[in-house]
Amino acid sequence: MTATLTENLPKRRDKLVIIAEIIDIARNGTSKTHIMFKANLSFSQLNQYLALLSQTALLEKSIVNGKEIYKSTR
To answer: Measured between alpha carbons, how far is residue 64 from residues 20, 30, 59, 68 in Å?
Structure first.
């Protein structure tokens, strides 16, 4: 059985935990919608985190078959 990042944490997540979850979700490349649902974020929250992670080069965006795909760089 594997432990998740939020297993023993309070119900409210801090930004660092959310960032770690997004990077983990996107490690093999995935869509914006998939990240949003897996990380349990609103659309506006997701856009803020994606902008931050893209600016800091922790995520890269590419277009595959006409779809935006986000992949972690670390």
So the answer is: 24, 10, 15, 7
d(Cα 24, Cα 49) in Å, to the nearest integer?
Answer: 13
Q: Is 1 within a domain?
A: no
| Alpha carbon 50 to chain centroid, angstroms | 7
Question: To 10 degrees, what angle do helices 43-55 and 15-25 make?
Answer: 80
Reported as a single tens digit per residue, the pLDDT across 30-70 is 999 999 999 999 999 999 999 999 999 999 999 999 999 99
- Residue 30 covered by a domain: yes
Query: For residue 35, what are the domain limits?
Result: 15-72
